[in-house]
Write a structure and sequence with these properties.
Keywords: Hydrolase, Magnesium, Metal-binding. It comes from Novosphingobium anseongense. Its EC number is 3.1.11.2. The chain is built from 6 helices and 14 strands. It has 258 residues and is of the alpha+beta class. Strand 1, helix 1 and strand 2 form a beta-alpha-beta unit. The protein has a single domain, classed as 4-Layer Sandwich (Deoxyribonuclease I, Chain A), CATH 3.60.10. The chain has a 6-stranded mixed beta sheet. It has a 6-stranded mixed beta sheet with strand order 5-6-7-8-12-9. It has a two-stranded antiparallel sheet with strand order 10-11.
Length: 258
């Protein structure tokens, strides 16, 4: 069984004890991280290697940043960054081959405030992602595109649709762009196993959101047809959001047959 997880860590150095704890307690085969918020040279690779993981990462000072960790093996990098906007310097995409899978780790732009350039950038980025996902599909490799998509796909994926109605995460354009990814043949693993919704992956630090369970689902794992056929389970490690100095996200994982 191969377990692939994603975790927006919200600062890899600030949350390093929580990250190492989660890796050791749940032992995913592959762990994709977002918002590492670290320049490449500052990434804590020695601590990660000390517990048996190898990693590749794409960092940026103070913002963004993505990484792919693998238990005992080196991920083989395929691509970093998405084509289409040469001036885009955000570290939001990294792709690798590991354990016979193509893994893409993404941190999709938030898009707030809207309307405005940040929302326009989000939609352009989603089109660029779709182009890359279509290229991966054409290769017919078993693939998982996972990470923080910053999209609440449907009303069932948020504690209160009205409370988030004006947010970039829930705009029709954001949802339509996400739906187009699924329409191209990708499977939303967490949604497949929780068709009625009510599963959250993010709770804001503000307004007692965690204590009141005011969350929503924005961390997703999209599976190519070659992987969707092998899906055994999908879930959320919810308890890690409640630990001291936790990320505001919680890990999401899928288990697939070898």
């Amino acid at each position: 069984m191969i377990k692939v997880a994603t975790f927006n860590i919200n600062g890899v150095k600030a949350r390093l004890p929580r990250l190492l704890e989660w890796l050791q307690e749940t032992r995913p085969s592959v762990a994709c991280l977002q918002e590492i918020k670290s320049q490449d040279e500052g990434f804590p690779i020695q601590d990660i290697e000390a517990i048996g993981y190898k990693a590749i990462w794409h960092g940026q000072k103070g913002f963004n940043g993505v990484a792919i960790l693998a238990d005992g093996v080196e991920p083989v990098e395929v691509r970093r960054g998405l084509e289409g906007e040469p001036e885009d310097e955000h570290s939001r995409y990294i792709e690798a081959d590991v354990f016979g899978l193509r893994i893409a780790c993404i941190y999709l732009p938030n898009g707030n405030p809207l309307p405005g350039p940040k929302f326009d950038y989000k939609l352009r980025w989603m089109e660029r992602l779709r182009k890359r996902m279509r290229e991966i599909s054409a290769e017919e490799v078993p693939a998982i595109v996972t990470g923080d998509f910053n999209v609440i796909p449907e009303d069932k994926d948020v504690w209160s649709p009205s409370a988030m109605a004006a947010d970039a995460l829930m705009q029709p354009e954001s949802r339509d762009a996400y739906a187009r990814l699924l329409g191209d043949g990708w499977t939303d693993a967490l949604d497949l196993h929780n068709p009625r919704g009510g599963v959250w992956t993010f709770w804001d630090y503000q307004a007692g959101a965690w204590q009141r369970d005011h969350g929503f689902r924005i961390d997703h794992a999209l599976l190519s047809p070659e992987v969707a056929d092998r899906l055994v389970a999908a879930g959320v490690d919810k308890e890690y959001r409640g630990r001291e100095k936790s990320s505001d996200h919680t890990p999401v994982w899928v288990q697939i047959r070898d």
